[in-house]
Specification:
By secondary structure, the chain is mainly α. The chain is built from 5 helices and no strands.
């Protein structure tokens, strides 16, 4: 009688320990999946923002170069660029979320700085205008080359986004089912041993 009680107690303790371990395991898996989903969501969000910023920078540069054609004919550009050029923000995001873009963005930033410098020289009349045009044309070509290289980095990222499935919720994941099945099987086996009673003696 005492042996049966001890066996039942041991089985109950073992089953409780497994249940507790399973609970901690399920909580860990849930947190890990949630963290992975959040990291993926944030990365995709910032990558999309970088591409939007790149479009704005590209539009700014195209406008500046279009205006720069007046320099070729020894004339001062009269158009005013009202577009934003968020090249600094683009560089910060790339350094944090996609360092593979940093080199190309640095080259683009140098071209933007060159255009800004040329506008100052135009107003100061330090250099003749056709010479300034040759400078910005070279900067524009380097900008376009860096822009194309940046797009080549974005292409596989966008392809990955379009084909990647959302992270499976934990309640539907195979990991959660495996844990549940393992706990159920083990606990059933332990309890079946623990609560097994001896056969009644024949009277």
């Amino acid at each position: 009688m005492d042996n049966n009680f001890i066996s039942a107690l041991v089985g109950a303790v073992a089953g409780g320990s497994l249940a507790l371990a399973g609970s901690f395991g399920a909580i860990y898996l849930h947190q890990r999946v949630a963290q992975t989903r959040e990291e993926h969501r944030q990365y995709q969000e910032k990558t999309e923002e970088m591409q939007e910023l790149a479009i704005q920078v590209r539009q700014w540069m195209d406008f500046e170069f279009t205006q720069g054609w007046w320099l070729r004919y020894d004339k001062v550009p009269r158009g005013k660029n009202t577009l934003a050029c968020p090249i600094d923000r683009l560089g910060l995001l790339a350094d944090r979320y996609e360092p593979a873009l940093s080199t190309n963005i640095s080259a683009m930033k140098e071209a933007v700085s060159q255009f800004e410098h040329v506008k100052v020289e135009v107003h100061l009349a330090v250099t003749d205008l056709p010479t300034l045009f040759d400078e910005i044309r070279g900067s524009y070509e380097r900008f376009k080359a860096a822009d194309q290289a940046m797009e080549a980095v974005f292409q596989p990222i966008n392809h990955q986004f379009s084909h990647r499935r959302a992270v499976t919720p934990l309640k539907k994941s195979g990991a959660r089912r495996s844990v549940s099945q393992w706990l159920t099987t083990q606990r059933t086996r332990l309890f079946s041993r623990a609560v097994k009673r001896p056969a009644k003696k024949a009277e």
